[in-house]
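Example record

The entry below shows one chain as it appears in the dataset: sequence first, then structure tokens.
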Amino acid sequence: MKKAKPFYIGWQDKMPKEHKSSVKKFIILIYLALPILAFSIIYVQRDFNGHQFELGKTSELTGVYHSSPVPTLEVLRSDMKADLSNHVLLVGYGKFGAEGIMENIAKQEGNIDGKRITLRGTLIYGDGKTILELSKKSKSLVAIHENVINKNDDKEYTTNALNNVIGEIVDPKCYFGVMKPGEGKIHKSCAIRCISGGIPPVFKTKVDQNKSEYYILLGEKGEKINHRVLDKIAEKVTLNGVTTQIYGWNYLYLNPELIKLITE
């Protein structure tokens, strides 16, 4: 007759040898597997990009303010650090765009479009782009200067067609430094809230293995399309449109209904 396996109940004082041997093997296996698993997870993770958010540090920038197509500050090249773009995209505090803040300033101070002003805020930068978060909201305005810079060499370049380009729609505030990672499906819900709040949607596309190009998205007539692209954010998409460069930023004019999701 075949010998029956010993029966063990956890509250008994002694564990049968067969059970004790199995438990030892399992524990040894776990101790060996955990370091291997941890190393494997770290190895396959992508390195964080070098984008920066100067949290807790306030900077003051002086330049010509442009309200359209989106709020930007055109700073003299000589007034910026060598590694920062002098064409600064303005965003609001938290998950909001800068339009409301700048409109409130204009109500208090009069028209400031095209004038040389000084703003204070928190710098965000990476991959050749510079953003200023207006952390103090309407108190972000430091000064309005009498001498207006009328240099518009960077206003607009020749328009070009962009056809069947693959990329991802991101919110620039998080992507260029506030969050890591600030892209992909892991960041989708945050990006939707940022763009819903008025931060301009930006299309990111790979030029080659080490270089990306960025386009602020607008409708065919230059209208805001934030709420019309929410279902396409943080997804792999293909799109068509007409591009131009205004005040140092690339803009892409398109029909948002024709943005296509790429299913893999």
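Notes for this example: The chain is about 20% helix and 30% strand. The chain has two domains: 52-144, 160-261.
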